[in-house]
Amino acid sequence: MNGIEACLEILAASGVSHLFGNPGTTELPLTDALLADTRFRYILGLHEVPVMAMADGYAMARGGLAVVNLHTATGLGNGLGMLYNAFVEGTPLLVTAGQQDRRLRFNEPVLAADLVGVATPWTKWAYEIQRIEDLPNAVRRAIQLALTPPTGPVFLSLPVDLQLELADGLDLRPPALPIAGPRPAKAGLEKLAAALATAKNPAILAGSRVLEAGAAKELAQLSLMLGVPVFAEAVASHGRLPIAADHPLYRGPLPPWSPGIHDCLAAFDLLFIVGANEMRLYIHHEPETPIPPGIRLLHLDADPREVGKNYPLEVGVIGDLRAGLAELIDMIRTQPFAEADVDRRREYWQELRDNEQARLQREIAEESASQPITPTALMGALARALPEGTAVVEEANTTHQNLLERLGVFRDPRCHFSHRGWGLGWGIGCSLGVKLAWPDRPVLGLIGDGAAAFGIQGLWSAAHHQIPVTFVIAHNAEYGILKRCAQEMPLPRMSRGQFLGMDLVQPEVDFVALARGFGVEADQLTELEAVEDQVRQSLEQGDRPRLFEVRIRRGV
After folding, report:
1. CB burial class (10 A; 0-12, 13-18, 19+) of residue 553?
2. Where are the alpha helices (DSSP H) in 278-408?
3. In what order do the strands lie in the sheet with 66-70?
């Protein structure tokens, strides 16, 4: 058995069934080995951006490890933007790349580079294997580190001659992953329970790690028990839903800017942060600190680096979120607190949510006859079109406006995927990865035209592997988010509506032609009724990839 075959043995024993990649010369031993190994499905991408994004979506949906193989220096370099996304998300990826033959390295051969140095900033661990005897332990260590909370990507560099080196007697057992933990300290949970029970007007800020810990139901129970509203992480880092979107006390994500966050939280006397980053801001505003003065902060998280990272805490507790929230609920039941206050809060936030949803439905109805289609009207049509349980991958920030979430569409919080890293080009590949992990669930990729252009090669993989994702490209021929940010800063010329490098015109990108060129059936839709009917039909049939380009109103 040679080195790459030994690596495949450990991956297969670890439950890996899909490999995502784009090969080069230093990866040829792997592709040769895969020709004789039917345990793996090799998912080919034409560019490293969709390859990495596919693995990212697959790992997030599956809740486990995904393995990516890239071509040495340039391939790894092309994938770095998506590696950054995975690092911010904490996605457990094992990224590998072939390295030039060690017998050539001194002479600085073609495509040789310090791959470990390139990958280190955005991985939990990066290593180049130098001895065949170390390969099994290196692969086991990489898998274990990727999957141990706080999870995240790891990297292994595999010299081509190491891949071909023969060895006997290697220990090819998979890693025995440690049982997740630790449980949060009882003393810390008791302090959290006492503070929550005595607060007059508390709120919860919850992040993606709640869902990834399997703790969404516990969070929902805690919210109802105390009559406390739940906010998701600010838009700049809002990825997975921490709670079902139809929960009566769910408030959706915080605004992206400090003044908006400050205003949202100003009325509260206590903020309980659960599995969230506190806070990842996007553009500097005054007040510099988005947390209102005087508000008490509590934090429960499995990631010790995030607890108390940016703001002083009253109580910080580290440990498993699901176990911690379950114990916290039991402790709060024994605490004396005013039922009348809980009922009042619960009724207030429920009524506010009902009124906001009614207002949104009125706005959708009022804009339904507009031409071109408005972003709000488009989202209303998609909300009506989605079959129950559809997974939605969103990379169209100025279009989606979190409207599906605000309308309560996602009754299963696992169905929502959006950006945390904000490296563009992620959405098309991520949608394909989610579908590979969930073959029985409809998947919609809602992608802005600017983001789609970064990862468009993923459409070829959809056609080649017949991955039946439905894509809606929201086409406004501009980088809308940049125009909005320019006005937020503000910048003098752009505040007057003058922009450079932000209008995708002369020519406009023809996504229908691009999709057809990559082998994906595509149409342009200009009427809301057609959007609703065609998208619903495509998702319900689920027999092939399809793309719909929807021209929407321009302007921020």
Report:
1. middle
2. 321-333, 339-366, 375-385, 397-400, 403-406
3. 41-44, 18-21, 66-70, 93-99, 154-159, 125-128
Q: What angle do CA 258, 263, 264 make, to 5 degrees?
A: 100
CB of 442 within 8 A of CB of 517?
no
**230: nearest Cα among 196, 253, 199, 259:** 253
3-state secondary structure 443-462: EEEEEEHHHHHHCCCHHHHH
SS3 (DSSP) at 343 = helix
**Start-to-end CA span in the chain (Å):** 59
CA–CA dist 429, 432 (Å, integer): 5
Domain coordinates in residue numbering, the chain: 3-164, 186-351, 367-551
Tokens of residue 149, six digits: 């909370």
User: Tens digit of pLDDT for each residue in 249-266?
Assistant: 999 999 989 999 999 999
Q: Which two tokens stand for residue 229?
A: 């509203």
Q: In this structure, are residues 299 and 315 in contact, taking their beta carbons and an 8 Å threshold?
A: yes
Decide if 186-351 and 367-551 have a common fold: yes
Question: Which positions ≥6 away from 376 have C-beta within 8 Å?
Answer: 363, 364, 367, 401, 403
Across the range 36-45, mean pLDDT stands at 97
Q: What's the CATH fold of domain 3-164? A: Rossmann fold (3.40.50)
Closest to 469 in 3D by CA, of 379, 412, 382, 543: 543
pLDDT digits (tens, 9 = 90+) for 164-205: 999 999 999 999 887 766 899 999 999 999 999 999 999 999
Between CA 75 and CA 80, with CA 79 as vertex, the angle to 5 degrees is 120
Q: How many CB atoms lie within 10 A of CB 166?
A: 10
* Other Cβ atoms within 10 Å of 34 Cβ, number: 19
Burial (Cβ within 10 Å: 0-12, 13-18, ≥19) of residue 107: exposed
Q: Which CATH architecture has domain 367-551?
A: 3-Layer(aba) Sandwich (3.40)
Topology, domain 186-351 = Rossmann fold (3.40.50)
Amino acid at 109: P
Which tokens is 171 given? 């220990």
- b or e along 409-423 (b: 16 or more beta carbons within 10 Å of the residue's beta carbon)? bbebbbbbbbbbbbb
Q: How far apart are CA 554 and CA 516, in angstroms?
A: 25
Locate tokens 């005054």: which residue?
286
In the block, which residue shows the tokens 């329970």? Answer: 193
**Tokens at residue 397, please?**
């920030």
DSSP string, 132-168: GGGHHHHHHHHHHHHHSSSP--EEEEEEHHHHH-B-S
What's the pTM value of the predicted model, to 2 decimals?
0.96
Q: What confidence tier does 24 reach under pLDDT thresholds 50, 70, 90?
A: very high
Beta bridge partners of 43: 20
